[in-house]
Each structure stands twice: as C-alpha cells, then as structure tokens.
Amino acid sequence: MLFPRSWAAIVMMLLGASPAGTFAAGPLRVCTTNPRYFTDGSGKAILLTGSHTWGNLQDYTYDKLPSPPAMDFGAYLSFLLRQHHNFFRLWAWESSFNPDAKQGTIVYDPMPYQRPGPGLALDGKPKFDLTLFNPAYFDRLRSRVLAARDSGIYASIMLFNGFSIEGKGNVGGGPWQGHPFNPQNNINGIDAGTGTAIHTLANSTITALQEAYVRKVIDTVNDLDNVLYEISNEDSGTPADTAWQIHMIRFIKSCEAAKARQHPVGMTVQWPEGNDAVLLASPADWISPNAKRPTADGHKVILNDTDHSYFWIGLKADGIAAQRAWAWENFTRGNQCLFMDPYLDPSHDPGRNTPADGKADPYWDTLRDALGRTRAYAERMNLAGAVPHDELASTGFCLAHPGKEYLVYLPQGDAVTVDLSAASGMLNTEWMNAAEGTTVRAEPTAGGGRRTLKAPFPGDAVLYLWSE
Asked: Is pLDDT above 90 for 400?
C-alpha cells in the first residue's frame, strides 16, 4: 500500500525540528566518524548545501547594462530558508572597479581599506591608505555573518578573488586598474608590479599586508560559530599561487589556534590551470573541485560547486533533469552541492538569468529545490554512518549505512536492484518523485538479500530504506 506525503509536509516537519531562526551551531569541525562531512560538535554529521551570489557582501553596479539592486540581505536569507538551504559563499571583490569588463565597467563597494587620499586613484576617487581598514566593510561583514547565524545558515568568507587581479573568463576587463595594491591607487608606495604577482609570496611586504587583512577578518568574526573561510575564488593555478594559498591556509590556522574558536578553511579549484590533486594535497579542511561527480573518500570534505564544476552554460544545455540528477548523484557519492546562483542579476551573462519584480528567475528552482531536498534526507538519516556504496545499487548511486539505511537514486526511474544482504528483518520503504518532491510510503522491504523495487511513478526517483 502506498501512503502519499507532500514535500511541503516533509519540509514543515523538518523545520519543526530545526526551525528557521535557530542558531547555526559550531564551530564546525570535520566529523571523526565520517570525515566526508562536518559536525557542530554534537556528533551529528551536517550536510552543507545552498546558493550563493556575487553581491551578497559588496554591492556592485554595471555602467552600461541593468544592475542588480543593492542586496536586501534579510530577503536573501529568507530566500535561502524557503529553499531549505543552510550555506552560502560570501563573495569578496578586491578591486574597487573593473573597467571594460564584458558587462561594462563594474564598480564595487564597500572596500576593506579607507580612501583618505591625498590624490586620486584610477577610478577618480581618493587613493587608498593600506594601513587603515574601512569600518563600513568589516561592520557589514560581521552583521551579515551574524544574521546568517541567527537564521541557522553557515557562511564561508571569501578572502581573495582571482577575478580581481586579472581579466578572464566571463568577466574579463582590467580589474588590476582598480586594485588597492596597484601603485597608482594607494598612498603607501606599494607596487606589486602585476596583478597575478600579489597572489604569490614574491613580495614579503605585500604578503604582510594581506596577512594583516586576514587577521582583521578573523578578529571580526572569530566569536561566531557559523564561519568557514575560503582563501580565493579561482586563482590561476600556478605553483607560485598554490604556495601562496597553502601559506594563507596555514596562516589562518595559526592565527585561530590561540583564539576561542577554530573554523574550517577551504580551497577552491584554480582556473584556468586548476588541478583537483592540488586541492587534495593541500592542508585545507574542505575543497571545491573541478570534477563534476567525484566520489568522496573521506580525505577532504567536498563542497561541489557549479561555479567550478558545472558552468551555467552546461547546466542550461543539459536541462533541468540533468541539473536535478547532478545534485542527487553527488549526494549519494558523499558530496555536498552548491549553486552559483545569479539571483537578481539580470546582466551577468546573456541568457543566464531573467529575474522579475524583485524575484529570482524560477528557471533555476529545479536545482535550488534539489539541493534543499538532499539536505532534508540528510537530516533524516544518520549521516555520520552513511558512506557511498555504489556497488549496492544497480543504478550505481547509493549512500548507505549497510544494514541500517539506504538512500538510492534512480536517474532513469523505473526499477532498481538493491543488495540488502547486510539487513535483517523488514525495512521501511519510501519513494520520492525527484521532479515533484512528493513522497509515497510503500510496503516494507525484506532484508537479507538482493531486492528489486519499482518506482510507483515515472521519471527519476529517490528510494529510501531504513530500519527502526
């Protein structure tokens, strides 16, 4: 017999146990029993998943194309909560402006340093003093991470950005012209030479300035439990850049070692010369790789981000069914997924996003919803005991604590054979229509052998089997 249950009812049930407004507990640390995930210290493994967007810390405008509105951060948090998300990357831009970008000149504000002059920088505003931090920047940083914590959401603070030191990819332009370390933009006599040189250890004076900035960020948020750090977004993958990022990872860890809290530090894949092996060999606690569907072996916590592994052009070309499958296939392989969400930006890339009336483009809801649904199942499972077991399901996508529970994804729907040899007695059986989010409870399934089960609806499906 099948017992239908709406997705909305499941979410309400889950939110009743973990309501919006509950503090994000922590600080997070790698779960010792299952190092594919973090734990908040309770022993329960936590799945991080969510959407992030370019203007969630600094505002930015385009001079020729329509710009996104200055972010209403409370509305952004509500948007994440409606999707049942609990994580975002907090974007940082190092340059005050990027002339001749593909979107037109981009202006970013606020910046980490004060601009008292004397003299004008290349953007026509007073020059930076690299010895004076800007309270407006750090006050906003703290207030937004604090608001996220109070909503039960974790925030990874991006410290540096490869797109702020060289024009490349879908942004291009000349961001080095707006960088505070450009000699024409500061009053301190700092001359880094070229943009890419500052994300190396070639100049000890520049490294010391960067360390002072990182220390200021740490001092601003160290007492908050929902903090993670990300060294830099998509730096070029030179050996010199890798050495600099590893230095910064170790620097953060050494700074926090003497403080009340220690937070996870992450490294995201470099671009365009990135190599996932570099991430795996680093001292980072978490990584965002280039691989679209890696299998987590517990060596690192993997936050698989469409920003690095599944660019929006591929997402749209493959269609919404493939987007949904990407989330579930990664979940069953022990990964956590993030979406590079264009949110309310109408102009970042032609054809990417069509927000209207202050609301995000619903086209991307399929992927947003899939991420929230993986988290909903993660909260029902004993995630600390769940390990990828592709061999246990004929579809090849199975996250299981053999004998206890099995979460299986069927990309094509229809039927799946699951090896339940490790289970004794009867297992509760539930199917979810992956496209719609509705679930049905089926008759219990007997353990003790291989069982073939057929989905009660067409299309891709999720099968959940568990013992009491």
From this structure: yes
Q: Residue 432 phi/psi, 5° resolution?
A: -120, 130
Share of the chain above pLDDT 90, in %: 93
- 357 φ, ψ to 5°? 55, 40
The kind and range of the H/E element at 51 are strand 50-52
User: In degrees to the nearest 10, what's the CA dihedral of 286, 287, 293, 295?
Assistant: -50
Strand ranges (E), 328-425? 336-340, 387-388, 398-401, 405-410, 415-419
- Asked if 116 and 196 touch (Cβ cutoff 8 Å), the reply is no
Q: Is the pLDDT of residue 306 over 60?
A: yes
Q: How far is CA 262 from CA 107, 229, 285, 438, in A?
A: 34, 11, 12, 40
From the list 280, 386, 295, the residue with the least C-alpha distance to 335 is 295
Domains of the chain listed by start with CATH number: 23-386 (3.20.20.80), 391-466 (2.60.40)
Q: Which residues contact 342 (CB under 8 A, 6 or more apart)?
A: 53, 312, 348, 349, 352, 353, 355, 360, 361, 364
